[in-house]
Amino acid sequence: MTTIAYLGPAGTYSEIAALRYLQLSYPDLEPDNAQMIPYSTIPQAIDAAERGQVEVAVVPIENSIQGGVTMTLDSLWQSESLQIQQAIVLPIAHALISCAQNLEDIQTVYSHPQSLAQCQRWLEHHLPKARQIATDSNTDRLHQVAEDATLAAIASKYAAEIYNLPILNFPINDRPDNCTCFLVLGRTSPTTQGTHSSLAFSLDRNRPGALVKTLSVFAERQINLSRIESRPTKRSLGEYIFFIDVEAPIADPNLDEALEELKNVTENLKILGSYAIASDDIAIVT
Predict the structure, then answer these.
(1) Is the preceding peptide bond at 208 cis, omega within 30 degrees of 0?
(2) Of 99-113, 160-174, 198-212, 249-263, which gets the smallest average pLDDT?
(3) How many CA atoms lie within 13 A of 235 on its CB side?
(4) Which of 107, 122, 160, 217 ranks highest by number of CB atoms within 10 Å?
């Protein structure tokens, strides 16, 4: 039995990414041999994988509009055993789900903070008087939307279908090229050769040139960085953890050499995984 944790309830983009992971990794798997387990928060889903309660957790890491998902970044740094198995990039097209007959009837819009932000200009133009209330996931309040025509939620067309709710407008995201990267996290190393690697590190002190020195380790070896992001260490103001994605597998001798040098100029260094990236347009999302 393959068990997968994701940010629930059912119908979230995380579930869509988890279903895509099943299609990619287990194309011949019978539906009865896979168990999708929703969790209320991203840290809870990651913790389930950390404890071995599920095989993997599928969680969002970065959106093309709103950037990094801080809860995922913080959980990755705190994890002691998880490795990135795979990355899945999905196009995201948001729908306004409501039983209202027209936009003027809507008084409140529910959604995840990332989704509200991705539709901000549309909401300001079409629903300027409606309250925007952030929820733990896109589908948290769909049961209330089904019972009250003054409510709406921002979620996927897939969510509207499985909850049998009407779509008032689609798509409503501000940018048509909106996409989110999801990570598949597990306790074992990936079974396929990676094309990218992720790592995180903290610096032993905040001094001029400290970060430049770490980044030059990659530049000197012509290793491209595809992402760099910082999060506070939570120890002291001005101290940060840096998350970096590089376009090279761990098996690359140049990267191996860079990591060895990086150990000498960082306080703590974590290798988060070496993995492949799947990116395509699938009907279930749009």
Answers:
(1) no
(2) 198-212
(3) 9
(4) 160
